[in-house]
Amino acid sequence: MVPRERALAYAEAIEGRRASRRARALRALLDGDGALPYAALSRIARGAPAVAGLNHRLPHFQHLFSGSSYAAGYYVYLWAEVLDADAYDAFVEAGDPFDAEVAQRVRRWIYASGNSVEPGAAYEAFRGRPASIEPMLRERGLN
Which entry of 9, 21, 100, 138 is 20 to 30 Å from 73 by CA? Predict the structure, then answer.
């Protein structure tokens, strides 16, 4: 055999062994009906070890879809994260997380304005532009 063919044959043999190990593992996990329990299937799909449990099953998220109020509340939390990350970026851009000028703008436009200015307009006055989602995405490693 030439080296390339030998390498391909070796790789095929290894993959065959992996497949048979997976099949044996699946058979060992089957319940009495011959069905694979959801938790075991999920764990295998993630490549997690046998000791890893399933913390969240789909019913755990049912409250997200049972009405519009929770989804709206969840969106508010997410939007607060956007504002938080973007506001912190003002300090980063100033070069100091305790920059007095930026802190004064936060105090004037965010804290002291109360309900006398529409919140979006107050934020834009503080930041000099609308809020950006980019800092939050960057914090989450999604940019």
Answer: 138
